[in-house]
Amino acid sequence: MNHIVETQRKYFNTHETKELKFRLSQLAKLEETLKSNEKLLYEAIYKDFKKSEFDTFVSELALLYSDIKDAKRNLRKWARVKRVGTNMLNFPAKSYIIPEPLGVCLVIGAWNYPYQLTLAPVIAAMAAGNTVIIKPSEIAANTSAVMAKLINENFNPNYLKVVEGGILETTELLNQKFDKIFFTGSPQVGKIVYQAAAKHLTPVTLELGGKSPAFITEDCNLKMTVKRLVWAKFLNAGQTCIAPDYVLVHKNIEDQFLELLKSEIEKEQFSIDNKNYTQIINDRNVTRLSGLIDSNKVCYGGVVNASERTIQPTILQNITFQDKVMQEEIFGPILPVISYEKLEDAINKVNEHPKPLACYVFTNNKLQKNKILKEISFGGGAINDGVMHIANSKLPFGGVGNSGMGSYHGEAGFRTFTHYKSILEKSNLIELSLKYYPHSEGKLNWIKRFMGL
Ligand code: NAD
Question: Residue 176 needs a FRET pair 20 to 30 A away by CA distance; which of 123, 216, 303, 433 works?
């Protein structure tokens, strides 16, 4: 590991990766590599958890392609040296900010959207002019292998290198000194990464998880709400970091909501028998998820096919914050429904828990929408939709508190992998003597005047 990091550092120090022409050509090469190997990418992800081509394109590859397109289109603007004003005290001078790459970066990916979550940060790091060591999640073994094959066969390892492995290899990597670590995964492992980074004072971005609520107020457009909620929740069999984890629905519409929910799930064919319904990633998660289904509270679904690793979309009713399903991030196709009478109480309950990665508000009531947006701190979210904020690259994506720190996508991704070097360039034409000895009352007054104090 040490050798890989050191050869990347040597290469970074040649300054080649800083050239805009180089960055653009490598981004184009990555695009071409992915596009010409889509078949391999589809096969690998199907082997890992039977994710369909349609879902893989829409929720993984399309986002990567649009990230590359966005970076290619805007790179010159993002990387431009930015002139800023100079204050009177520094007269005569000019001031500017130079965006510079951080250096050798480590990107650690998660398994649930293996391509997108591993390669989107890599695209941002490349656009910013860094070298990257990439550690995909070993849990999705086939997608990890295909990324290793495609990157390691097509790119200079001193620039981009995939290192496969689990805890052992990641621990070894984390012992090295990086200039940036970008981690996607659970808050528990996030803490390990943060601690390891602290030893070298390495800056980190942590994209973590948590329990993301969906508020459904009395006056929402219920039909539309249910349609969008069902898609957002059961896409990828609920294994989405920003999936609505649970629903807070107003008591007066709860029955109607539950009826519509059941029929929408059936209409959308999110069914255990549908060959396009994504599998649960491994047996451990099937067992964990089965343990969250309280049979006394199942209002729909609840069927687990352990040998196929599928779990039917399941709705749990009459849930309280004390239920087992509310003690951890679900990360699967189980939707607990909690009803509330006073919005205030529902907000307070959410605020008693760690800050969520996402929050969704289905409402037509402006006051209630604004109240939730003001009173709950969360990473990002949507009004009258679920998950889709991730698909707008102009919205920085990331968590807050327990759900993470830092953000990426679009320009936010470029900024995440960039240091902004501030320069004051002084003119040699004149030199005001105010700051020099001997000090005097008059000089102090001038300084105050220059500083507008
Ligand atoms: P995880 O934390 O178990 O694993 C993530 C990565 O960390 C993997 O590459 C793994 O090899 C490595 N890792 C695991 N244990 C480690 C250890 N002890 N030391 C060092 N490295 C270790 O997470 P996961 O199961 O892959 O993903 C699920 C979690 O990730 C959920 O909490 C989910 O919400 C979150 N997530 C967040 C986002 C986001 O964008 N914020 C996206 C996807 C998933």
Answer: 123
Identify the pLDDT of residue 452. 87
Outline which parts of the chain fall under CATH 3.40.309.10.
Answer: 213-398
Closest residue to atom 4 of ligand 1, CA basis:
185
Count of Cβ atoms closer than 10 Å to residue 378 Cβ: 21
Tell me the β-bridge partners of 206: 183, 405
> CATH homologous superfamily of domain 213-398?
Aldehyde Dehydrogenase; Chain A, domain 2 (3.40.309.10)
pLDDT of residue 432: 83
Ligand 1 centroid to residue 164 C-alpha, Å: 14
The closest residue, in CA terms, to atom 8 on ligand 1 is: 137
| Active-site entry in 105, 241, 264, 329 | 241
Structure tokens at 317: 């009713």
Burial per residue of 139-150, b for 16 or more beta-carbon CB atoms within 10 angstroms, e otherwise: bbbbbbbbbbeb
Q: What is the DSSP string of 284-353?
A: HHHHHHHTT--GGGEEE---EETTTTEE--EEE-S--TTSGGGSS---SSEEEEEEES-HHHHHHHHHTS
Residues of the chain with pLDDT under 50: none
Ligand 1 centre distance from Cα of residue 209 (Å): 9
Based on the residue annotation, tell me whether 308 is a catalytic residue of this protein. no
Tell me, in angstroms, the distance from the centre of ligand 1 to residue 189's CA: 6
Q: Which residues line ligand 1 (CB under 6 A)?
A: 108-112, 117, 135, 137-139, 166-167, 170-171, 184-186, 189, 192, 207-209, 241, 329, 331, 357, 399, 404
Report CA(108)–ligand 1 centroid distance (Å).
Answer: 8
Terminal Cα distance for the chain, rounded = 54
* Cα–Cα nearest to 160, from 168, 151, 169: 151
- Where in the chain do CATH 3.40.605.10 domains reside? 2-208+403-420
Q: Quick one: pLDDT at residue 444?
A: 94
Does domain 2-208+403-420 fall under CATH 3.40.605.10? My reply is: yes
- Residue 297: closest CA among 250, 331, 334, 269: 334
